[in-house]
What we know:
The chain contains 13 helices and 10 strands. By secondary structure, it is of the alpha+beta class.
Amino acid sequence: MGAVCCRPQPVDFDGDVNLFHFVLLRCVGKGAFGKVRVVQHKQGRELYALKYINKSKCVKMKAVANIVQERRLLEEIDHPFVVNMRYAFQDDENCFFVLDLMLGGDLRFHLERLGSLSEDVVRFYMAELSSALSFLHDHRIIHRDLKPDNILLDERGHAHITDFNIAVHYSDKRLLTGVAGSMAYMAPEILAKRGYTYTIDWWSLGVCAYELIFGRRPFRGKTNSDLTHSIAKDSLRFPEDAESKCSRDGLRALKGFLERDPSRRLGCKPNGEGFADIQRHPWFQSINWDTLDSKQQESPFVPDSKKANFDASHELEELLLEDNPLKARQRKVQDINNLSAEMRQMEEQFTSYDFKKMQRRSYYPSNPQLASMVTATSSTGADPSRPVTPMTIPNDLAPNDSLNGNGYSQKPSPSSEGADHDSDPHAVRMHDINNEKAY
């Protein structure tokens, strides 16, 4: 009598979301303690990006608070120009973020390939990113790490902010003082260590715009000390051929974003007036702000869908070098009291999320920057989710078929040396200027 074939267990889509709900496709990114791969929901057949983070490595690198903070912040956010979280869950080994899939690559990838982008393209992206930043600031969230690496394009060429690993809530009553982010994109008020708020994101946006147009950053230095001095003291200068690449209105906008005085910086007026200033600026005269968020406007740059807009070596590493490949596993029954404090924190605070079943909610102000192993408190002011239908693929697409994708940054987040940890325990060490593209 022949052997009985092992049949897969049916997937319970009515229960909490877990890895059994997804088909694992190709690996497209690698981080300090996790990876990113394309997945397909087995029921709805939508495509997503799955960012998974190894718990043990997370504890070893003292990044538990960052992961929980990122999970909570992403639950609050749903915007057309943000890489939104659709699901969150964990198993015994990993924490999982299921995010909007961006097939167009990040702006660092395109900048390195093309050298620079046209003014029309950059203006369009700055408009979309300004809309996203205004939304975040309205929700009292500062990103703190805006740079080309963390701006992803969808298949139609629209820009989206990703990587909220060091993002934080801010309060008008207390300034942040921790030195956090990628140094070349840090605002002067961060490096001065006299306190800062949401205004730093508009400076970073200006650095990105300058770099995308001219193929170089406005402030540079061979060492961290030299770069700090340049950001704090050097006059803003443009290349000799600047006017051949950027209009005078564009140069004025760059000067506005890169104003050292936050009170005079473009985008920084309170109560939404800063975003209104951007909308009225002559450089953005060609932007139809009424239809921008609906993505009705065509992007002036559309990534080549026939090419992989990511580092294809991640898939090869997964096939040849991974000694513990990702697979869905049933959770083991365990006593949470036997876990370490850090593991217990992740178990209790990295809660499941399903955008089709749950409303988005805000943890502010009951979610100060996490530094201790305290169970999450309930929140108020829930907002309904505004889900966007992700991409779907035909039924005959196999897991090994070619898909374009890209890395969704995941960086280690050790404490910043010299930072005021009491006022900003979520701060991280500045990235070395010679190793800025840290995934």
